[in-house]
Structures are given as C-alpha cells and as structure tokens.
C-alpha cells in the first residue's frame, strides 16, 4: 500500500509513500492540490527511481482540516514532523506552485533538513493576471456537482486544460472528490483553509528568502498559456527566471505545458529527466 495516515503536529496527515531509491524526494503540492497531483511524475519514472513521499497538506485531500492554522510555519511544522516520524533527517524537497513556496520557506528556516530544492513552476513575484487565473481554479472548491462523473466532466472543460486529459490527471482530480449520500459531489479541499493560506503567503518576505537559500536548487518552468492559446501563463518565463536568478546557483529549465499540464503525460517525462539529473548530480553511483 502507498496510502498512509499519521497524526503529526496535532493533525492527521495523509501521504503517499512510494518505495524507490535514495535519496528520498518529499513532494509538496500546489495551493488547492492533493498528493495525487504528482501521480503523473511517478508514472513517468520518478518512482521507483526515487522513494517519493507526497503529502496532502493540511486543509486538503484526506488530511485534517482544522478551522485555523494555515501559516507557512504551520505547514512547515507538519512536514518536519512527518519527516521525523519517517526517520528522514534530510531530503530533497520538491514543491509545485504553493508547494514550491513552502519548499523555499523550509530551506531558509530549516536548512539542515533540505538537501536540495526542486521548484516546479514557482515565482516569488506574481502578476495581477496570475491572481485572477488562480481564482478560476479555487472557484471549484465551493461548487456542488450532480455526481463525481459530473465533477470530472466539468473539469475536462476547464479552460486551463484546453482539451488536455490524461489518466493520471483524472486520478488526481478524483482524489479530491467527496460524494454525499444523495450522490452529489464536492471538493474535499477546504475553501476556507485556502483563503487563509493565500493571506499567509502575503505575510512572508519572499524576495528576501530566495537570497538566503544555500542548498542546490533547480527551477522548472511550464510557461504555456493557462487557458486557450493567447491566455497568460500562471508563471511567465520572465518571472520564473527572475526567481531562479535570485537563488545562488539555481538552474532554470523550461519545459512544455502550462502550470498544470507540465506535470502530466509526455510533459512529465521531461520534468522527471531534469529532476533525476539534478538530484543525482555529484552523488556516487
């Protein structure tokens, strides 16, 4: 079994632990995402190349959803407590979107626990367009759908997918569905929690944090349109490059796809190759 539940730091955390080689890669999902958002990377070969541990952060997926406690420090404490439970003193930490910001926070506040940073589509400076695009995704958290299949059908029409679909993408979305006794479906992720996380993000000096990172880092950017052709990217290449350039020695790599599609299907294979080369650089065979 890869599904596990553990009470750490006062909350019950759900995580996926896939067996594989060393070093372990701890995977932190995006703002509204769950651990299955990394299924595409696992299927593309990240597992079993490495042992991967993907979390449902508090407020998301099958993890507990307390009414409060959504600062960056709260999230970091959960991750560190889980690593302690698993006996992992230091890990490569991979974060997508908000998970990338949390990875940066961990690397600055707890540098002894982060051996390397893998940042997937992260920028510490965002545009007004980015905020609007993120809201489109957040809106689904407050909606009720006639069934779980209806939930999936609606997501297949999402403009940010622009017709893209993949079995691993479906497994990710199905993992976030909660079905009621009457058959209707809603997202498991707490919209109230996400609003608190957004507020917490604004309280941190990200521009200063990136200058303090000392561990090796790589930033992989999917600057494709987050919607039909012509739509803006969630993380435009210029902002991703600026973030990478602010981290000492950080390598910037651009891959096909947008903020979501870059980690699924054929695009995920390119991401996995970049991650594997980076993680194993300088490590004896």
What do these coordinates show?
- This protein has 285 residues and is of the alpha/beta class.
- The chain has one domain (3-126, 191-280): Rossmann fold, CATH 3.40.50.
- Helix content is 39%, strand content 18%.
- The chain contains ten helices and ten strands.
- The protein has helices at 39-49, 72-86, 98-109, 128-138, 148-156, 167-175, 191-201, 206-212, 237-246, 265-280, and strands spanning 3-8, 11-18, 25-28, 52-55, 91-96, 114-120, 177-179, 185-187, 217-221, 251-254.
- It has an eight-stranded mixed β-sheet with strand order 1-2-4-3-5-6-9-10, with helices on both faces.
- Strand 5, helix 3 and strand 6 form a beta-alpha-beta unit.
- The longest helix has 16 residues, at 265-280.
- It is globular and about 55 Å long.
- The mean pLDDT is 94.
List the topology elements:
Layout: E1 3-8, E2 11-18, E3 25-28, H1 39-49, E4 52-55, H2 72-86, E5 91-96, H3 98-109, E6 114-120, H4 128-138, H5 148-156, H6 167-175, E7 177-179, E8 185-187, H7 191-201, H8 206-212, E9 217-221, H9 237-246, E10 251-254, H10 265-280
Helix pairs in contact: 1-10, 3-8
Main attributes of the structure:
alpha/beta; 18% strand; Rossmann fold; globular; 285 residues; two-stranded antiparallel ribbon; 8-stranded mixed sheet
